[in-house]
Automatic annotation (TrEMBL):
It comes from the Bacteria. It comes from Paraburkholderia caffeinilytica. This is Group 1 glycosyl transferase. Pfam families: Glyco_trans_1_4.
């Protein structure tokens, strides 16, 4: 008898999104739920897509579905929320005709979430679970620094409250620990559950720093500042490089992760201005190299621009006991301040960055003033095992 599948829909496998897909698929198959990933055909050569195809498993499938070439209806020229809503609806229609679907999981529901009050569920009668990563309308109300947009935030709050009442939505998971509390006080009783899922990072233990440096070919006596992940201008990398070029006794910069074209061009033109010369790894970082990088470095850069959500890099820095240099904005600033993870940047001027780097390299890590239990409760839950457990609880 043919089994019903869990359908996971993610059109974009860049940045961190593919990892959420991978972890969701692992959770499903480990619990005995066969699953199928639907994504755009442009992702056929992505490492995750190749892994799924090569595995050739009946319980782990992939379907490549592109948007309709000529959208039908009155909304074909509408905004991005309705365009993505139309894509997810199209995917569900195509896949469910070929394969029985018991549940849909959307690792990034922000694609279409604010279209739900107007268009309803894109999955017809199939129940679904979504994860929101960019719901920031409530931040001013709970003390998180973010842009002050009272009208926009009020409208999004209203749309959010209506969206979580959409038929079929079983649970909305969020990587923001303040959103479930806000929802509990503001949403109606007939709304779907809003629950916290800790933003995970692959479970690793710190390596001996000297051994890690030896494997990476690093100087055992030098100081190292790590910038990690998908490297774009929003990482604050431009400002960091300019600040390091002006700083006496600067640490060695390590930039590890795939760069976009603009950042690659910038780095090519500016690395010569840095002393000591930086280590630049412009490629996908394997798990063992990632472990060595976090073990070997002295601090981690989180001076991001226009990013108000959570960061797996913050979790990894915490796990490896490394101080962070973070902007005060969004959840990164909220976690960093509350857990005393490192100096907080008021702005990204060279003077501010230079002062924070000097402070980090001379004064951190220090004994936190926060209550240890509260500190542990915030970030110790950010494990891959906890993520899978939370997801499976909602799927059961």
């Amino acid at each position: 008898m043919e089994q019903d599948y869990v359908l996971i829909v993610e059109p974009n496998l860049t940045g961190h999104r593919w990892r959420y897909v991978e972890w969701t698929m692992q959770a499903c198959t480990e619990a005995g739920y066969p699953c199928i990933l639907a994504t755009e055909s442009a992702n056929e050569d992505h490492r995750l897509a190749r892994q799924i195809v090569a595995a050739n498993r009946a319980d782990l499938q992939i379907a490549f579905v592109d948007p309709e070439e000529r959208p039908r209806g009155l909304l074909r020229g509408s905004n991005q929320y309705s365009r993505f809503h139309r894509y997810f609806k199209h995917v569900h229609r195509i896949v469910s005709h070929a394969q029985p679907i018991r549940l849909v999981v959307v690792p990034y529901a922000d694609y279409f979430f604010y279209a739900l009050p107007f268009l309803g569920s894109p999955f017809r009668n199939t129940p679904w679970i979504g994860i929101t990563m960019r719901s920031t309308f409530h931040h001013h109300k709970v003390g998180i620094k973010s842009p002050d947009r009272p009208i926009v935030n009020a409208v999004k709050a209203l749309l959010f409250k209506r969206a979580i009442r959409s038929a079929g939505l079983r649970t909305l998971l969020t990587i923001d620990p303040t959103l479930p509390e806000w929802s509990a006080h503001n949403a109606s009783k007939d709304s779907a559950a809003v629950a916290y899922v800790a933003d995970p990072f692959p479970d690793e233990r710190a390596e001996n720093p000297l051994l890690a440096r030896e494997r990476l070919g690093l100087d055992p006596t030098q100081r190292y500042l790590l910038v990690y992940g998908s490297i774009t201008e929003r990482k604050g990398i431009y400002e960091l490089v300019h600040a390091l070029a002006r700083l006496e006794h600067a640490p060695t910069l390590i930039v590890a992760g795939e760069q976009d074209a603009g950042t690659r061009h910038f780095m090519r033109n500016h690395v010569r201005s840095l002393t000591p010369a930086p280590l630049v790894l412009d490629s996908f970082i394997a798990n063992d190299v990632e472990r060595d990088l976090f073990s070997a470095c002295d601090a981690v850069w989180l001076g991001y621009k226009g990013h108000y959500g959570m960061s797996g890099v913050l979790v990894q820095a915490y796990r490896f006991g490394k101080p962070v240099i973070a902007t005060e904005d969004g959840l990164i600033g909220w976690f960093s301040r509350r857990c005393e993870l490192g100096p907080i940047l008021k702005d990204l001027s060279s003077a501010s960055i230079g002062k924070a780097i000097t402070e980090t390299m001379t004064s951190w890590p220090h004994e936190p003033q926060a209550v240890p239990a509260a500190r542990e409760d915030l970030l110790s839950r950010h494990t891959l095992g906890q993520f899978k457990q939370t997801l499976l609880q909602q799927m059961a």
